[in-house]
Structure formats: structure tokens, C-alpha cells
Amino acid sequence: MTKITTIRDEQETNAQGMADALLHRMAPTTKLTENGQRFRHMTLLELARESLEVEGLNVRGKDRMEVAALALQSRNMGTSDFPSILANVGNKRMRLAYQQNPATYQLWARRAADLPDFKSVTAVQISSAPDLLRVNEDGEFQYGKMQDGAESYSLITYGRIVALTRQAMVNDDLRAFDTALAGFGSAAARLENRLVYAQLTGNAPMADGNALFDAQHKNAATGAGSALGLDALSAMRASMRQQRGLQSETLNIAPSFLIVPAALEQDAYKLTSANYTPSRFADVNEFREGGRSSLTPVVEPLLDNVSATQWYAAANNGQVDTVEYCYLAGTDGPVLETWNPFNIDAMNMKCRLDFAAKAIDYRGLYRADGK
Q1: Which residues are paired to 357 by β-bridges?
Q2: What's a Pfam family in this record (predicted)?
Q3: Burial bucket for residue 229 (CB in 10 Å: 0-12, 13-18, 19+)
């Protein structure tokens, strides 16, 4: 009986080991595999020479600049093609930096279904759902319809390009490579955060012609009584409770998040702490952890750029829409693309982010000027 055993291609094994070793050099907290151990002490140029030799290219006698140029211009289809190795490492390093920079908007905003293209999409609000009606004796159900809130948005593409030159390879300038990739990941996370919070601070008009936070929407407070405190929180809660849907139905929305600038961080944590006792014995702090209207504090320094006194509240986005965000289908965050231009000895790296954020419904959002 003949036994057939599939042995992993040496080229693929080497490519994965080189990628593991490079990623570990840039991010030492990542696990270094046994395969990667073989390459951990190699410089970029030594890895490039090894990759070219495995591909079957004769680089004996070639100087350092020639090897670097060949490695960057290699277009073999094998998985050990050096630009492919760098692209593999680049994507992993960028994603690691992206994940290490969590944005506060993810605590309260809702991720919507990813969009298949860049066409404008209209969001149907949760608050537009019709009330249920009693079924008559004949068992006949009555038709209802969703009132279209008409809030629409579309994806926007953001990005930048940097290059890994053959000079950087010869100099083993892995720090510059790492800095660019980590910078891409961190920048993408910061950009998403800015775009979502811009929905609050920008106070743009909604489909009904009124600003997101407006007297007509009954979700904005001004004057001395709006300063962050128990009385102001009580007024916010009452306003949100009394909001009505598109068909005038009572929604009974409860606030879940207290969103504040860094200047109000101490006050926010004090008001939501289980250990906080109001100054008046007759008062009860229902906004504390475990209280009947407990609030989760969210501190965002971006808000300080607009106002050190303004604060916001948001309902749970499972109860009513607030702000939603999404990506292009199949991306889920920043994407790194690489290519080797014919006219220069370098590998270009392009970071692209397809992202959208939009305030969908004002009923679950509230803003107080704090002064």
C-alpha cells in the first residue's frame, strides 16, 4: 500500500517564519513561533537575501544595495516573495496598533451592518416601529407601516501612503517601518473616534430640518440649571422619558451613558459612584451604580476642544437609535495595501479606511451646556 504524505512547501514555511520573526522584533509582546526562532537575529537585508535564495534567485556576489533592490522588485508568485512577507507583517502590525487604541465611542454608539458599496443608505429608526393592536374576534391582524426617519449617510474613504525604501532596508531601519505601521493603526482608531463624536459636537441638522440638539427636539438644556449635577441629571432623565416616536407613541427611554469632557471627569465619576451620598439627606442618588437610573460614565477628551462644561447623555442603542457607524463590507477597520513602483526602489504602503458615522435619532441623545 502506497502512503502519500503532503509536506509543507519550504518557501511557504520560510515566509511564515520570517514574518513571525519580523513581527516579534516590532512588537515583542507577540508570540515568537519555533519557526520564527530561526530568523529572529536576521536583519532586513539578510531576510531579503534568504528569501531571494529560496525563490531560486542567485544573489551571490551582489552588494547590499543590489540585493535590496532585487528583493523589493521581486514579483514571483510564491508566498516567500519578500514584498508579500513585508505586506503580511505590515497588516498584522497595523491591526495590532489599531486594536490597542480602543475608542470610547464603541461604548455607546451602535455598529450597523457593513455597507456593500459607497451609495447613500437611508436608516430606518427603531422609534418608527408601529404599536401592536388588539386582534379582533375573527383573528384578523391589521397592517402597520414603518415611518421612515429619512436619515441617510454613505461611506467615506480616508488614507495615507508611506514607502519602505531600499536605503531603509540596507540600514535595517525597522523602527521607521514599525513607526509607520503602528501610526497607521493608531491614526485610524483616532479618526473613527473623531468622526463619531463630531456627530455630537457638530450638532448638524437632522432630516426634519432641526439641529440634533434643539428646543424642538426637547433634548437640549442651557443656563445655570444645566451644570452637571443631580438636578440636571434628573431633568435630563425626565426629558428623555417623555420623548415620543414618529407615530406619537410613548417610548419611555431611559438614559444609560453619561458622556463628559475630561474637565468633568471627577464630577461624572462622583455622580455615578455607588459611594456617593448627596449633600441633602432627603435626596437619593439614583444615577449611581446599582441605582434605578444608573449611568455609565464615558470620558472623552475630544469634547474639551469644544467645551469644558458641555455634557451629553445617551440611551442604550438597543432601545432607541443614537449614533451608528459602519465599514465597507469585508474590511472592518483599516486595510493595508502594498505595491512596488517600477520607477523607484521602494515598497509603497497605503493605509485605507472606509468608514461612516451618523446620528440617526435625537430621542436617545441629550446635551446640556453646563452654564
Answers
A1: 325
A2: Phage_capsid_4
A3: middle
Mean pLDDT of the chain: 86
Cell numbers at residue 157, please? 474613504
Domains of the chain by residue range: 95-130+147-371
The fold of 95-130+147-371 is phage-related protein like fold (3.90.1690)
Reading across the β-sheet that carries 365-368, which strands appear in turn? 220-221, 365-368, 311-315, 255-260, 296-299
The answer to whether the Cα torsion of 259, 265, 271, 276 is positive or negative is: positive
C-alpha span between 239 and 214 (Å, rounded):
12
Q: How many CB atoms lie within 10 A of CB 156?
A: 12
Give the strand pairing for 365-368 and 220-221. Answer: parallel
3-state secondary structure of 13: helix
Report the C-alpha gap between 259 and 244 in whole angstroms. Answer: 23
Q: What is the pLDDT of residues 264-309, one digit of tens each?
A: 999 999 999 877 666 665 566 788 877 788 899 999 999 999 999 9
Q: Please choose, from the candidates 42, 195, 164, 34, the residue with its C-alpha nearest in 3D space to the C-alpha of residue 93.
A: 164
Burial class (CB in 10 A: 0-12, 13-18, 19+), 145: exposed
Q: What is the pLDDT of residues 101-138, one digit of tens each?
A: 889 999 999 999 999 999 988 877 655 556 667 777 76
Nearest alpha carbon to residue 237 among 217, 255, 249: 255
Residues in CB range of 269: below 8 A, 6 or more apart? 297
Beta bridge partner(s), residue 164 = 347
DSSP type of residue 219:
-
Place of cell 437611508: 122
